[in-house]
C-alpha cells in the first residue's frame, strides 16, 4: 500500500494521472503511476460540464469509490470540488472525511488560498492528508481565467508564499499548475514536500496530467500537456466498425451465437 510518506520519496520523479472510474484506475495502476487523482476535472473531461464549478461532492465521492476499487497500489487522492470546503469548517471536515471514511481515498486535494492554510492544519491533525494546489486553480476561473499565473514578481512571491504556508500547515505535497518553470523550480527548491507540476516545467518533483489528455482521448490537448496515444481515434474507429458491422449484417456472425439443441423440436 502506498502512503503519503512514500509519495515522491523515490529517486525518480513522481507520477500522477487523473482517473474517474475503476477501469481507468486499474490501467493507470498497472502502468505504474504513483498516484491516481480523482480530479474535479471530471466536470469538463467526462461529465459534460463547461468547467469544474458544477461538480458536486456526491459526484466526486461515487467516482472516488470506483477508483479506490480499481487501484491496487497507487495512492488515491480525492479532489475536493468547488465550495465543498472553506465556507464552514465542520462541513469541510465531513466532506473531506467522507472521501477517506466511506470511499477509500488515501488523501484529499484542495485548491489552495490563504483561508485553506488553517483548514489544511486541522485536516492533517485529524488524519486526513492534504495535497495543496497553487498557481492556476481552475475553481477560481471567474477571477483568473485559465491563463498562466505568477508571471509578475508580486504574484510569483504570493504563490511561493502560499505553497510554503501549506507545507508548514502539514500538506504532504503541492500541485503547481500553469506557472513559469523558473518559479516552479524556485518553489521546488524552497519546499521539502514534493511539488507535482502541470504546465510548470521539468524541475518539479513529479508530474500530473488529466488522463484524457495523456492518452489522446480528449477534445484537444492544452498547450502544456502531451498526448502519448490516440485513444480517441482508436475508439471512434472501433465504434464506427461496430455500427457498420451491425448495419451490414456481418455482426453477430455464427461464432457469436449459441443454438440450444434442446430447443430443436420447438423452434
Ligand atoms: O482536477 C484535476 O484534474 C486537477 C489536476 C489538473 C491537477 O486538479
Polypeptide structure, described:
The protein is α/β, with parallel strands linked by helices and 267 residues long. It has one domain: TIM Barrel (Alpha-Beta Barrel), CATH 3.20.20. The protein is 39% helix and 13% strand. It has ten helices and eight strands. The protein has helices spanning 22-31, 42-45, 57-70, 89-101, 116-125, 141-144, 153-169, 181-190, 211-214, 231-248; strands at residues 14-18, 35-38, 75-79, 107-109, 130-135, 173-177, 195-198, 206-209. Strands 1-2-3-4-5-6-7-8 form an eight-stranded parallel beta barrel, surrounded by six helices. Helix 1 crosses helix 3, helix 5 (116-125) packs parallel to helix 7 (153-169) and helix 7 (153-169) runs parallel beside helix 8 (181-190). The protein is elongated, with a radius of gyration of 21 Å. The site of 3-methyl-2-oxobutanoic acid has 11 residues, from strand 6.
Architecture blueprint of SSEs:
Layout (H helix, E strand, L loop, with lengths): L13 E5 L3 H10 L3 E4 L3 H4 L11 H14 L4 E5 L9 H13 L5 E3 L6 H10 L4 E6 L5 H4 L8 H17 L3 E5 L3 H10 L4 E4 L7 E4 L1 H4 L16 H18 L19
Parallel strand pairs: 1-2, 1-8, 2-3, 3-4, 4-5, 5-6, 6-7, 7-8
Helix pairs in contact: 1-3, 5-7, 7-8
The structure holds 3-methyl-2-oxobutanoic acid (KIV).
Count structural domains: 1
Query: Main beta sheet: strand number and arrangement?
Result: 8 strands, parallel, barrel
Order of helices and strands: EHEHHEHEHEHHEHEEHH
Query: Structural class, from helix and strand content?
Result: alpha/beta
CATH topology: TIM Barrel
Work out the helicity level.
Answer: 25-40%
CATH class term: Alpha Beta
Q: How many beta-strand elements? A: 8
Compute the separation of the termini in Å: 56 Å
Q: State the helix count.
A: 10
CATH H level, superfamily name: Phosphoenolpyruvate-binding domains
CATH architecture: Alpha-Beta Barrel
Q: Which strands sit side by side, in order, in the main sheet?
A: 1-2-3-4-5-6-7-8
Sheet-strand content, in percent, reads: 5-15%
Parts with pLDDT < 50 across at least 5 consecutive residues? none
- Quote the average pLDDT: 97
Question: What ligands does this structure carry?
Answer: 3-methyl-2-oxobutanoic acid
Evaluate the radius of gyration. Answer: 21 Å
What form results from the Cα inertia axes? Answer: elongated
